[in-house]
Specification:
The chain is of the alpha/beta class. The chain has three domains: 120 residues, D-Maltodextrin-Binding Protein, domain 2 (3-Layer(aba) Sandwich), CATH 3.40.190.10; 88 residues, Periplasmic binding protein-like II (D-Maltodextrin-Binding Protein, domain 2, 3-Layer(aba) Sandwich); 70 residues, Double Stranded RNA Binding Domain (2-Layer Sandwich). The longest helix has 17 residues.
Length: 315
């Protein structure tokens, strides 16, 4: 990094706010490595981590993994903060901005099967699940898509960090669970009993696989430093996906999925999904256009999906 991006006003080492989970800490290390400057993770307890026995929707929805981190950033206890983008609310608190996106990891969901499922059947992820199998998840989006494909499946609440969920699966509490491939990859936990689901199988959450860095809007020195590690293709995808979320204005109770990708011909393709939690309704659409129109593509796609959906879905 050039001297121009290291004004004397910047304090070293940097304090990077983060959740305290192993995955969050691993992601923070990736940001500090990308910056190539002295820094330390500052683990913070969040509302979403404190209560594991209820779903996020029951606890109040999006932002539960970021509220306390936002507060630490705004009051100056940390210099910037590292998040999984899918955990960030669509509209950040006043005074905060997303300053950087690291290159996106694998955005797909993974179906993790309990011991005893024959590995040779893993090429067909949904048919490998026995009739009436119990699946552990807290995601309305994942449940809706699985229920639409397999109405016979049963579901139980499964929350906690990646290691906690894998331990519950290994103990026999569930036949399967679903996790983000990005988290498994970053923790080195991909194994033979995990099946990466295609976009046709499962539309991921908006922002899945993206590490986002937030900073204070008026902190020009930190913003300039973080701009140097911002990955443009990932930023374009994030812009489109979050614009779609903004157009839909759904809650944690509304199953919504989105994935934007740059195509070989240079266009930006955006796929979106909305559904009922019970899987009885599911709408899916795709649009493509110029990358410079990322926000417009996302907003247009959101409007189309809303028009396709029953009015009460977003009530």
């Amino acid at each position: 990094m050039s001297a121009a991006l290291q004004p004397a006003a910047l304090a070293f080492p940097f304090r990077a706010g983060t959740r305290a989970s192993p995955l969050a800490l691993a992601q923070t290390r990736l940001v500090l490595q990308a910056l190539g400057l002295p820094g330390a993770a500052v683990p913070l307890s969040t509302s979403g981590d404190a209560e594991q026995r209820r779903s996020l929707a029951a606890l109040g929805g999006k932002g539960l993994f970021a509220k306390e981190i936002h507060e630490a950033l705004l009051d100056g206890r940390v210099d910037f903060a590292v998040h999984s983008l899918k955990d960030l609310e669509t509209e950040l608190p006043a005074g905060l901005v997303i300053a950087a996106h690291l290159p996106r990891e694998d955005p797909r969901d993974a179906l993790i099967l309990a011991p005893g499922i024959p590995p040779e059947e893993h090429a067909l992820p949904f048919p490998t699940l026995p009739i009436g199998a119990r699946v552990g998840t807290a995601s309305a989006r994942r449940m809706a898509q699985l229920r639409q494909a397999r109405p016979d499946l049963r579901f139980g609440l499964l929350r906690g960090n990646v290691q906690t969920r894998l331990a519950r699966l290994a103990s026999g509490d569930f036949c399967a669970t679903l996790l983000a491939m990005a988290g498994l990859n970053r923790l080195g936990l991909c194994q033979g009993d995990s099946v990466a689901l295609t976009l046709e199988d499962m539309v991921p959450a908006a922002g899945q696989g993206i590490i986002a860095v937030t900073a204070r809007a008026g902190d020009s020195a930190t913003l300039a430093m973080l701009a140097a590690i911002d990955h443009r293709p990932t930023r374009l995808a994030a812009t489109a996906e979050r614009a779609m979320l903004a157009a839909l204005d759904g809650s944690c109770r509304t199953p919504i999925g989105a994935l934007a990708r740059l195509l070989p011909d240079g266009r930006l393709s955006v796929t979106g999904l909305v559904a009922r939690a019970d899987g009885s309704f599911l709408a899916r659409r795709s649009l493509s256009g110029a990358p410079a129109d990322a926000a417009r593509l996302g907003l247009t796609l959101g409007d189309l999906l809303r028009a396709d959906s029953p009015a009460d879905l977003f009530a």
